[in-house]
Design a protein that fits this description.
The protein has 230 residues and is mainly β. The radius of gyration is 18 Å and the shape is elongated.
Length: 230
């Protein structure tokens, strides 16, 4: 991508080329503009949601090769919805219900997710770039091949979650909880900051750099019941 620094591949997950413009989507020419609201258990195929606010309930809906630009999903009920090959840019999701949803081959760019329920969900081959996640509940979620790039994760709960091939290049973690999490090939070396208030034993299976290890050493000792005295 011209003008963009290329980061080294993260462990177990090569950085995917994510379209940055709507016109770059492989299905861009097939998109049709959406009118009206959202409805439950409806299949939306190659639809462009451009601007506007969508509230109400659309549980069980299915989005296939859809694009969302500048959309507000505040308080929207989208429980158990399926998101396959979707692209979201500059969107706002506040207090939305995304619990038990399925996401595959999805991209979220420059979007805000705050106060949302995302627990019990499955995210596979998902890239979040330049996004802000605040007070997001991802407890018990399954994340595989997920990249948080240049994001802010504040008060994000990943307790009891299963993470495989997850990386966080350029991302700040502030108050992220991993209590009871299970990890495999989770690369945290690219994080700008690791602010983890608890759940340090849930980092088993993660990869840290030396500086991060020294920074977290007191928390690891506390979690293991070790008293350090000189």
């Amino acid at each position: 991508m011209a003008g963009r620094a290329v980061r080294p591949a993260q462990i177990g997950h090569a950085m995917s080329a994510v379209p940055e413009q709507l016109a770059d989507l492989p299905y861009a020419e097939l998109l049709s503009p959406h009118t009206g609201g959202l409805r439950s258990d409806v299949r939306y195929d190659t639809v462009h949601f451009d601007g506007g606010a969508y509230d109400g309930r659309a549980s069980g809906a299915s989005f296939l090769e859809c694009a969302f630009t500048g959309v507000e999903l505040d308080g929207t009920g989208l429980r158990t919805a399926r998101w396959n090959e979707v692209w979201l840019q500059g969107c706002r999701l506040v207090a939305a219900d995304l619990a038990e949803t399925e996401w595959q081959d999805a991209s979220l760019l420059g979007s805000v997710l705050a106060g949302i329920s995302w627990y019990g969900s499955q995210l596979r081959r998902v890239v979040l770039r330049g996004c802000k996640l605040e007070a997001v509940n991802l407890r018990g979620a399954v994340l595989r091949d997920v990249v948080f790039e240049d994001c802010l994760l504040r008060d994000v709960d990943l307790g009891e979650a299963k993470l495989t091939s997850v990386s966080v290049p350029g991302t700040t973690l502030d108050g992220v909880r991993f209590a009871g999490a299970r990890m495999e090939k989770v690369d945290l070396r690219g994080a700008v900051r690791l602010g983890l208030p608890d759940g340090h034993l849930g980092l088993s299976g993660a990869v840290l750099n030396t500086g991060q290890l020294f920074e977290l050493a007191p928390q690891f000792a506390h979690a293991l019941g070790i008293t350090v005295k000189d």
